[in-house]
Write a structure and sequence with these properties.
Blueprint lengths: L11 H5 L1 E2 L5 E2 L2 H7 L8 H10 L2
Antiparallel strand pairs: 1-2
Amino acid sequence: MDDKLNNSNQTIFEQIKEYDKNGNEYWGGRKLAKVLEYSDFRNLYLLRRIFFCYI
C-alpha cells in the first residue's frame, strides 16, 4: 500500500484499491474480506458470486 492510507478523506475502499499493469483498478480479495470483516477468506466466495450477478 502507499501513502493513500494516510488520507482520511478517502473511503476505506479507495484506500485499499490497487491498479494492474494496464491501469485498471481492482480490490484484492484478502484486503476486501478484511474490510468487510469476514472471519474467513473463503466466505468471500459467496459475496463475489452475488456481486458478479449484478454486473
